[in-house]
Amino acid sequence: xxxxxxxxxxxxxxxxxxxxxxxxxxxxxxxxxxxxxxxxxxxxxxxxxxxxxxxxxxxxxxxxxxxxxxxxxxxxxxxxxxxxxxxxxxxxxxxxxxxxxxxxxxxxxxxxxxxxxxxxxxxxxxxxxxxxxxxxxxxxxxxxxxxxxxxxxxxxxxxxxxxxxxxxxxxxxxxxxxxxxxxxxxxxxxxxxxxxxxxxxxxxxx
Length: 206
Ligand code: TMP
Description:
- It is a single chain.
- The protein has one domain: Rossmann fold.
- The chain has helices at about 15-30, 45-55, 65-85, 95-105, 110-125, 140-145, 160-175, 190-205, and strands spanning about 5-10, 35-40, 90-95, 130-135, 180-185.
- The chain is of the alpha/beta class.
- It contains eight helices and five strands.
- The mean pLDDT is about 95.
- The protein binds thymidine-5'-phosphate.
- Thymidine-5'-phosphate (TMP) binds near residues 55, 70, 95, 103 and 154.
């Protein structure tokens, strides 16, 4: 696909997204492949500051304000990190443009076209080469949400919200199937998921 692809890890809370990202990093390190990794919201120092403001449990910022802050964080990442590394190193991102559509549009009902336009305005032709979408079923989601400490503002929603967000992610993936792999922790055990992930990464890096 590309020697230095931009690979994104998406999925709702408790879906196993972070575990997938860690496995990918382990693989790249083991094979001495140059990469950078960042998370959204977060990334540059400024974007990390925005992250702690907006995800703070006590934040009273409204969801439209949050949308602009997610975008501001992305804009700084584009300018200070992504632009100079795009196609030069493998880039792994923990959440990216699909999270904004899934959470802000499918979850919170904010305008889809506005979000698409803002992303285009910020990123121009920069696009993920591939996205791993981690999914979780209702039983596991409810169980895992109950076990989870509410660490941030976006951890506080109920099952219905996350269900809408996950359906949103699946809808986005279904429109561009060749660029997504769905990793389903309900169907497959961790080892099988890891194998699928690594096989796909090997394939992408060819
Ligand atoms: P996480 O980094 O622990 O996954 O948490 C980040 C939270 O931010 C998560 O609940 C999803 C949310 N988020 C959005 O709502 N919109 C976005 O565009 C991004 C990048 C994250």
